[in-house]
Design brief:
Layout: E1 7-8, H1 11-21, E2 28-32, H2 38-46, E3 49-54, H3 57-66, H4 68-72, E4 76-80, E5 93-97, H5 103-111, E6 117-123, H6 124-131, H7 141-147, E7 150-158, E8 163-164, E9 171-178, H8 187-198, H9 205-216, E10 218-219, H10 236-244, E11 247-248
Parallel strand pairs: 2-3, 2-5, 3-4, 5-6
Antiparallel strand pairs: 1-8, 6-9, 7-9, 10-11
Helix pairs in contact: 1-2, 8-10
């Protein structure tokens, strides 16, 4: 198994992923973690241009051999490298069965990019945390920050038997559509606040926020109705409001 990757081998699932992305001949697509090219092949049939990023040198050789014509014709451009370090090309749609170990950093990198839609295969647990709403058991840092950038929904669950080698967990196909970002004065403060309070989920929110503010040497205006709430009970918009209310001491 190359660098811990699990390859999607079910052609029907591959076709559905591309259906969900609603690909057209004038679309430019970015795929991260091309693997042996099973999804890449279907993307090349439907889209006008595909950029692929693959870190594994052996798999890059396989892909260059398999898609010689498409590379020669300029329809497929393949880069060997770490997707977390490589600058993304200008693309319209992101369609990938990504390496699960980089799900979180890759998703945050994607959300800061300019794109129309993304259809991504994630580990089931990660997908459920990504789309979770306040009061749900999976709601956390990932959910809050993601909702400040996009709308995300699980389109279908994919059993582990559809991959080779077979992983230990099931997967889920998620569709991500960017939305107008919250009006956040300082996104760095917002994300730091969210990360801090969810690292202390058992504490009441007011205690965590006051602790965070003291450590960061900030003054924050706490609303009375937040005093008895826990982090998972608060909507993303409220965290944005709190982040915008802080001042330097």
């Amino acid at each position: 198994m190359e660098l811990g990757q699990h390859f999607l081998v079910d052609r029907r699932v591959i076709r559905r992923i591309c259906d969900y992305a609603d690909l057209y001949a004038d679309d430019t697509v970015l795929e991260v973690g091309c693997g042996r090219g099973n999804l890449t092949e279907e993307l090349l049939k439907r889209a006008g241009k595909v950029y692929g990023i693959e870190i594994d040198r052996n798999l890059v050789s396989v892909l260059r051999e398999r898609f010689q014509k498409e590379i020669r014709d300029g329809k497929f451009e393949l880069i060997q490298g770490d997707a977390l370090k490589v600058d993304f090309f200008q693309f319209k749609k992101f369609v990938s069965n990504i390496p699960y170990k980089i799900s979180s950093p890759l998703t945050f990198k994607l959300l800061k990019s300019d794109f129309e839609v993304a259809v991504i295969m994630y580990q089931k647990e990660f997908a459920e945390r990504l789309i979770a709403n306040a009061m749900g058991k999976n709601y956390g840092r990932l959910s809050v920050i993601a909702k400040s950038y996009c709308r995300a929904e699980i389109l279908e669950y994919v059993p582990k038997t559809r991959f080779r080698p077979m992983p230990d967990v099931d997967s889920a196909i998620v569709k991500i559509i960017p939305k107008p970002k919250f009006e956040i004065r300082n996104r760095e403060v917002f994300e730091d606040l969210v990360t801090f309070v969810f690292s202390r989920k058992r504490k009441m929110l007011n205690k965590s926020i006051l602790e965070w503010a003291e450590l960061r040497k900030l003054k924050v205006n706490l609303k009375e109705n937040l005093m008895k709430k826990r982090p998972e009970e608060v909507e993303p918009e409220v965290y944005a409001m709190l982040a915008d209310s802080v001042d330097l001491i």
